[in-house]
Amino acid sequence: MKLFWVSKRLAFGSAITTRGHVEQLQTLGITHVVNLRHGKHRKVVRQFKSLWLPFPDDKKPRPKWFYRHALRFYLKAMHKPNSKLFVMCHHGICRSASLTYFFLRLSKEGSKQAEALVRKARPAAIIVTAYRESCEAFLLRARR
Asked: How many angstroms separate the CA atoms of 13 and 2, rounded?
């Protein structure tokens, strides 16, 4: 498992698959997990408050309900002062990086700054164009 911090309370990375990963995350203070893996929501993930948004890494835009669920979970998690959120997908490169971008944009970061924070944390990260565009369209509608 790989983990990359973009802020004191937000990180993204690859899949939690073992009890050792759970212990490592708990040591780091992780309290909430968003699982983006398609078809896998293992018991070890359920050791945390979690949201499962199973999507294949198909590079297609995400629907509005995807962002609504993510937004609701993120706001609940961040409302608690000591919570820390980990966003995971299979390799921690596309899906988790792109949803982390969305969370940074919710935190009032500009699009370039949000992408820079993700890339600084993990240079191999890819903010997929379709994921970014559906994120920005959701944010535009939500701010009206």
From this structure: 5
- Domains in the chain: boundaries: 3-142
Query: Per-residue pLDDT averaged across 38-51, rounded?
Result: 77
3-142 has CATH 3.30.379.10 classification: no
CB 84 within 8 A of CB 9: yes
- Reply yes or no on whether the pLDDT at 127 is more than 70: yes
DSSP character at residue 89: -
Nearest to 111 by CA among 132, 125, 88, 129: 132
3-state secondary structure (DSSP) of residue 11: strand
Distance CA 75, CA 109 (A): 16
Question: Residue 111 burial by CB count (10 A; 0-12/13-18/19+): exposed, middle or buried?
Answer: middle
